[in-house]
Amino acid sequence: MIPVLDFERFTSGKDRDGFVADLGVAARGPGFFLLTGHGIDAGLQAAVFAQADAFFSLPLAEKERISILKTKHYRGWAHDGLESLDETSGQKDRKESFNIGFDLPGDDPRVLAGEPFRGVNQWPELPGFRETMLAYYEAALDLGVRLSRAIALDLGLAEDHFDCAFVEPLAALRVLHYPPATGAAGEIGAGAHSDYGVVTLLMTDGEPGLQVRPRRGDWTDVPQVKGAYVVNIGDCLMRWTNDIYVSTPHRVLPPKRQRRSVAMFVEANPDVVVAALPGTGEPKYTPIRAADYLQSRLDATYTEKVGAQRATCPASPLTTRPGSPPDPSAPSR
């Protein structure tokens, strides 16, 4: 039901067409697949988990110092119960997390202007934490961009069609800690939801709990494959493909032991206009800026107000990440 795809088939050139075809089947069907051969260093992955463990072990006062509630940009520590991902039940999630976004200096004009999602990251006072998380953010974002090239080919677009959509993106890295289950009635680690962005790249510690509910199916456990990423299609990409791709509900059950995971939510640049891609048929949705779409989803998620009054974000000029020249075939902005 949830296939295992070896990305090296694509990156090595040995079976690009076969990988693209298999990805297309997974994206249109379960909306989930496991990705091996991704090229992210195992040592870096282990360092991220070690730093996450160190952070979540800090005294409560140290974590509250960098609470996500103190910034309107959704960066920092989120306490247990702050989120309610199941919008239908309103049930609070039993987990804590730490979020970072695209790293900008405090004197960046967008930061000074108070643009949404353009704040500075908050960091704990832990040796090596910032450096490790930023290195992993870049590696995971690069993987997301490389994967988007296979997605573009599956959709009949130029391979680099999406490259400029991820220059300075809304992408967020989140490390999560789920405490052991208490056995309380109705307890949930993360409520039933679909992810908001383009694709999610999830690294887990092997502890069970993640379940997916495919269309016309029941909840089923996501299989564990050592070293593989759990990849799923997000709501933004489903909208972008005019519902050709499928964003599938999933949840996390309370674990028997503590559970840790690291999610990279690959999102587009704030001003990218998400509209039906060429060749996907009559548009089903009104075009919307990526930042506005993300904000609408976050507003429905948090059980407490995050940050102060939000500012209105004017369209900002496109800037370029090193090694990513502007692509005239990229989505409109």
Category from helices, strands and their pairing: alpha+beta
- Whole-number tally of structural domains: 1
Q: Numbering strands along the chain, what is their spatial order in the largest sheet?
A: 1-2-10-7-12-5-4-3
How far is the N terminus from the C terminus? 36 Å
Number of helices: 8
Count the E strands. 14
CATH superfamily (homologous) name: B-lactam Antibiotic, Isopenicillin N Synthase, Chain
CATH class: Mainly Beta
Mean pLDDT: 90
Low-pLDDT parts are: 308-333
Give a quick account of the main beta sheet: strands, pairing sense, barrel closure.
Answer: 8 strands, mixed
> Percent range for helical residues?
10-25%
Report the sheet-strand fraction: 15-25%
Structure notes:
The chain has 333 residues and is an alpha+beta fold. The chain has one domain: B-lactam Antibiotic, Isopenicillin N Synthase, Chain (Jelly Rolls). It has 8 helices and 14 strands. The strands form 3 sheets. The chain has an 8-stranded mixed β-sheet. The longest helix is centred in the middle third of the chain and has 26 residues. It is globular, with a radius of gyration of 19 Å. The two termini are 36 Å apart. 41% of the residues are buried.
Quick gist of this model?
By secondary structure, the chain is of the alpha+beta class.
